[in-house]
Every structure is written in C-alpha cells, then in structure tokens.
C-alpha cells in the first residue's frame, strides 16, 4: 500500500500549489521536484484561484505570514477544497504571535483541510482554536515520548475528529492519525532540526503524496512522513561517510528524496499502526 | 566571437538589477556571481529607478508576481531602456493566470525589451499579446522537436520582428533568434528540469552576457544559452562520477558556471546558425 | 574570552529574530542553526513586537527593502532595545538609493543599535547621517588597506562614539570597534565575495554571539567576525582538496560554521587589539 503511493507520485507528477514563507520556499520547490511532483508558488489574491485550479494539491504555510496574503490563502483554500484537491496546512509558529494564532484559527474555520502538519506546540495551539477543553492538551507535554504516547494518540485522534483533517505531528516520535486510526513513526534523525526547512519540506511531500493518492489520505500522509524521516537517516549515514556539516546534510537530504524508491521505503520505514 | 563574450563578462563584471521571484532569487544571485557578474535585487517602487541606473542590465521575472511590484517593473524597465541597458523579460507562468498574462502584455506594451526568454508555452502566450494570428502558433506544439523545427523558427523570427526583442525559447532544443537570424542550440540535460530555477538562472546569465556585449545581443544571448546548457551537461557528467541526487546536481551546475572559460565553451557549444 | 563566547552560544541556543531580505534569508537561517543559535523570521507589523519579545536578539537588514516593512523594523527595533536585546543593523546598499539611505538614517534615529555591520561604503553612508563632517570620511577610501588603517580606525571609533553602537566594517581587512577600543581582523578569503550572503550571514552570527554574551558586545562581535572569516579560510582549504566551484564553497562555508569549536577559533583567529 505504502509502496503504491510512491509509484503513484512518479506516474502522476502531481502539481502542488504552495502559498508559503520566503525562508524555505526554494527548498520546498526542490523537494517537490525531488519526490516526483512539480511546484507552483503564487500568492497574489488576483491569481491564486486560477493557479490552484490548475494544480492537484495546495499547501498553506504561515511562516513569514503577512496580512497581504491571508486573503490569498482563504481564496485558494476554498477553491482547492471545492475542487476536492488535498489541502495541507502547516501552521508554522502558531502560538508565537496573536497574528499567527488568529490566522490559523481563521483558516481552520473557513477552509476544509485534508491534513494539518506541525510540531506538538503548533498542534496544541490549533487544538485550542477548535473548542477542545484545556484538560486534554495539558496532559501532552512539549514533546511526544514513549511515556506520554497513549495520551498523545488520544489527543490527536480527538483533534482529527473535531477538525475532519488528518493530523501529522512530527518530532522525535511522529504521529499521523485520523479520528479512528493512528500510525506511530520512528524514522528521522536529530540533525534534521539543525537545518531550516525540514518541516516545511515534509509538508510539501505530504501534499504531493496526497495528490497522488487522494483516496488514501491517511496512508499517503504516513508514507510521506516515513519517506522524509528515512531520507534524514540515509543522509546522516552518508554524511558520516563523506564528512561535512549541516549544509552538506541539507544537500544529502534532498538528494535522497530524489533517489528514494519503493524498495528503499519498504525496507526503511519504521511504522506501527495504533 | 562567442569566446570574446565570456572574456568580456570577466573583464567588466556587469552589475545586473533583477526584479524577480522569491523562489529562485538566491540561485539567481549566485549564478550571476558565478558567471562573473554581480547582482542587485530591489523591487520597491521608490528605489528601482535609482538602482537600475547604477546597473548595466535589468531582468524582469514575473514568477510569484504580486501587484505591489508591477509598477516597479514598469518604472525600472522604462528607465533601463532609456539608458540603453539590456532589459530581459522572463515571463514565468504567462498563460497560467489572467494576472500573469495581462501583466506580461502590459510589460511588452510599455517597455522595450532586448530579450525575452521563456519556454515554448510562455512564448506562445507572449505571441498572443502582440497581435499575431492564432494560426502560426497553433502549428507549434508544446515542445520544439526536430519535426517542427522549421515552423518554430519561422514563428520565433516573426515574433522577434513584431516585438523588436531577441527571443530565446528553451527546452530540449533551444532557439535564439532575431527577425533575420536564428541559432539552434542543443546543449543541456533533462536533469536541469528536476531542480527549480534553471530557467530563471539562465535569464540572469543572458542579462549578464548582454550587458558585457551590448552591441551583439543575439550572439550574447546565444552564448548564454550554450553556457548554461553546457554547465548542465558538465554537471551531469560529474554527478555520475561523484554520485548524489538533484541537490548535488544543482550545486554542480552553479560550480561549473563559476569554472567555465572560453575554451570550455568553444569546445562544448552545440550551436548551428539558421 | 573569545573562547567562552563560542561555548556560550552552544549552551544558550539564542533565538534570533531577523527582518531581512528575501535573497539570502535561507542562508541566514541556516548559518544561525550552524553556529548554535536558532532563527525566527517575521516582518509583519502586526506581529514583530510579540515575536521579538520571544527572542534574544534582533537583526534588521535593509536588502530588498520595501516600504511595507519599514514600520515593522522600527517597531521591532524599539521593542528589542527596550528589552535590552542586542539589535544589529546591516545597512545593505545604504547609499545606493535615497530610500535605503533615508531608511538607514531613520532607523539610526529611532532605534538604539548595539552593532552596525557593513562594508566601508555602507558605513561611510551611515556616518553622513550622524552629523559627522565630510572631511573625516573623505580620507578613508573605498577599501581599508594597511596604508589607511590608522585613519580608518579613527573614523570608526569616532562613528561608534556618535552612534553608541559597536561598528564592524568588513572587507579585506576587518575592523570592529567601539569608541575606545578596536580590533583589527585579518581572517577571511576573497572567494567569500563570489557567493551572495557572506555579509548577511556574518550579521546573523554577530547577533547570535552578542545574544550569548550581551555583557561583552565588542568581543562578541569581534569573535563573530573572526569565526566567519576563519570558516571562509577553512572552506577554501577544503575546496582545494575536493575540487568544485562557488556553490560547493558556499556549502563548505556553512559546514565549517557548524563544525567550528573553541579550539579551532583560538588557533585560527588573526586579531590584534588597537
């Protein structure tokens, strides 16, 4: 099943429209190409509906948010949802400022997201905007560990039920869940946090995989999380061999995404169903 | 002749002003430095005329177009043309949205471009804004092949005659033409399409070469197209040797531009006059 | 002393807020991570005060300046200064347009900067906005050389006295000075000028080091300048070994920042107190 998703991306070359931040946008475009998809970035209110209509998926990423593009996000999101395109939210920095938190809440209210991908802090902020009681999130600390995994799974499934979106929380342990089923993923490498854009790039790969297999969004999202984490592991192994620092690591990470095939993914994914 | 252009860039270090997209702008700045030129990016309406006056060439690239910078493009373009600087248009995504198509047409109407560089789809869109009959373009499919080369050459020469600009169409086969003369170029490698920015970077190199040799715009443009394609070939050869994926390929592509000299270009260029 | 600063960055992981240009922003984020700090980029007027309050230092960089973010710069700068965060100005292109020059002057008038880092041309422009007599700057040519070093030192100490900021002028010879004391630094490599972002990245490292050691801003700034220059030298040495061009050099430069430790810095820094 996971294997099919990778082959489906290669066969379909999904076109992904991204309204994203200017820090990691180049990496986002390159990781889309590396994973077999194709990028279009466009954020002007006057063209986003047309552009997203030409595409197969939409990413909305609120890093370097500015008020000029919020309406663009809303318009593109509504149009993409109407066309039944997968729409993926990356609520970068939600909780860090009122603007980002309010915008995340507004986006959630006005757009039907297919997937929301963030770190645990961002996802907890999202939860506060969807009417959840404080009690649930309070039990999930700032990192998902083996110790709080059960609580985290319950929280995330509950959030998925309330939002109708697949929730992907990434960190040392990753969780991808809908309201009924969850995948716990243990791929990845700590060095991924020493380059900018690991999270943003993953969000793009999620969109690409979902666009290639829109009938299995949960599995497509889980496969993307495994794929990115596995590339992080393979890149680290190669880095030990060739030497170098964090910039070489970034290059290797994207390199492995461009070389990843179904066999590599099947062998390397560390996933369990919960 | 082509050899002289490369040496002229090295001798003059032309300063290129770019109003461009935020996806590939870092690559654009680095390829300018790599080819012996120097970059300035500035897009605020309040400074573009001053900035472009300090420079030797201007690039206008409409990727990630936003309405805030359209007037900046017009002002900079008019000023640069007035100063007889080469002005190069990269109509990224023309045809993909009304905003981009209309903006491309407005730019063509208000600015005297020296060179227009795009893929065949963008160039066909440009042609529609210059009063051409539909019939001509209809005969040129979405790719230039050996089979439709003659038709394509006629179309491109005709477009050059109508716009007064050198037209550079890039793809598997590249054509660079003015109204009377065309060059057919067969440098390049398919992997160039698996990284973002190959086209944008080429447009910058075109501007640098034209700034270095403003009296031979057709040959300067053709030399830039050959140079970029040759770097793509050399990078591919090196990639086979060192291993790696698309991100390593991007690094190698810019590396070769920084190492390219007249001898390498003379030996590697695959160009014929038509 | 310089050794302690590096260890302090590693221990504290300072969070640096940057309002910067879209050309080199990705490099800026990656060099912060590489040197042991962490980046946040945010430029919307509605969130900059909140964001900078969460951080330990602020960078204001006027490359690709646009009028939309000038008020954001002012707001963030005032808030950061109020919180006694180090605030670092990179006056990119000051002198190249009225917008940039006027904005640099306005920033200097409204914000108490801890450090101003630029090339000699930008720093001379800054000096004109602070009431200095023309005579002083006229004696400092467009490059600091052994021949005009004494004059340059006097000019820079004087500028520091007038602005209350540490002044860091970088070029073939670097000077870091307050009103009483100066460091002359001879680290670095000419190839650093063949990639975009060397200066912008240095400014980020200055902010990171100052945030880690806010009681020794002069030494923290000097250490950052040495560190960046040393990485440029080490990267060049490695480039000779592995081959490659300017893009590989950029990768190696960031790589070395991620590998730099106190011993390497102590052994490699070429600094004298004046």
Layout: helices, strands, pairs:
3 copies of one chain form a homotrimer.
Chain A: H1 2-12, E1 15-19, H2 25-34, E2 38-41, H3 48-54, E3 57-61, H4 67-82, E4 87-90, H5 98-110, E5 115-118, H6 120-128, H7 134-138, H8 149-163, E6 166-169, E7 174-177, E8 182-185, H9 198-212, H10 217-242, H11 246-259, H12 262-268, E9 271-273
Parallel strand pairs in A: 1-2, 1-3, 3-4, 4-5, 5-6
Antiparallel strand pairs in A: 6-7, 7-8, 8-9
Helix pairs in contact in A: 1-9, 1-10, 1-12, 2-9, 2-11, 3-4, 9-10, 10-11
What does this structure look like?
The structure is a homotrimer. By secondary structure, the first copy, chain A, is α/β, with parallel strands linked by helices. Chain A has a single domain, classed as UDP-N-acetylmuramoyl-L-alanine:D-glutamate ligase. In chain A, about 55% of the residues lie in helices and about 15% in strands. The first copy, chain A, contains twelve helices and nine strands. Chain A has a nine-stranded mixed sheet, sandwiched between helices. In chain A, strand 3, helix 4 and strand 4 form a beta-alpha-beta unit. In chain A, about 60% of the residues are buried. Chains in contact: A-B, A-C, B-C. The interface between B and C is medium-sized, with 29 and 29 residues.
